[in-house]
Design a protein that fits this description.
Elements (H helix, E strand, L loop, with lengths): L1 E8 L17 H4 L4 H16 L8 E4 L5 H14 L4 H5 L5 H10 L5 E4 L6 H14 L4 E8 L17 E8 L7 E2 L9 H6 L4
Parallel strand pairs: 2-3, 2-4
Antiparallel strand pairs: 1-5, 1-6, 4-5
Helix pairs in contact: 2-5
Length: about 200
């Protein structure tokens, strides 16, 4: 399997809650999006439009926590008001980031979302790569994203809090300067994945 066209977005170290501005989208669309979703939409645009990838290519989205802050607020509202607003709920679900990316970019290939237990990046990556490794898909767009962990969850955090998103094309055929990966050299962390593509 070959990996290419890696696109990364991360907030600056002095403002881990920063998000991409998404100025190419309508204000009514972007104003309700979380950091996680904005980063996901940005890297999806960078890879699909930046590299001219067919909009029928399937996406596999992987996250260790998903919409953590938005889910907390929905739960808080449920406890305080005994109700959940439909719009707030729809943006809090695990697949919200991938769904918003497909809407923003008019993507038609569909998506799957993977929550690897124990923050095991390699398992999430292998789940994304499975259709390519099995020969049922020639290409998959792999997207990983995790947002800044809110203060009220920091005491439960295991491992580093590194908000970032990246996208990559997983292919059965070598394209350009693609990196070949096999079961013996799968990156174990998001940072290890990014470092593999640094020139």
């Amino acid at each position: 399997m070959f990996v290419s066209n890696v696109c990364v977005w991360a907030p600056p170290a002095d403002d881990l809650s920063a998000s991409p501005k998404l100025e190419w989208t309508q204000p009514i669309f972007r104003r309700r999006l979380s950091q996680l979703t904005k980063m996901t939409v940005q890297v999806a645009r960078d890879i699909f439009e930046g590299y001219g990838i067919d909009k029928n290519t399937k996406i596999v989205f992987v996250s260790f926590r998903g919409e953590l802050e938005r889910e907390f607020k929905v739960n808080q509202t449920l406890i305080q008001d005994d109700q959940i607003l439909p719009a707030a709920f729809s943006l809090s679900v695990f697949n919200a980031a991938a769904a918003q990316a497909t809407i923003a970019l008019g993507l038609k290939g569909g998506y799957n979302c993977v929550f690897p237990s124990g923050s095991n990046f390699a398992d999430g990556f292998l789940a994304a790569a499975a259709p390519v490794l099995a020969g049922t898909e020639e290409n998959i767009v792999f997207i990983y994203a995790d947002e800044n962990v809110p203060e009220y969850y920091k005491e439960f955090l295991q491992g580093p809090n590194q908000p970032l998103a990246f996208a990559a094309l997983l292919s059965s055929q070598k394209k350009g300067d693609a990196l070949e990966l096999n079961l013996d050299n799968i990156p174990r962390t998001p940072q290890e994945f990014i470092n593999a593509f640094k020139k």
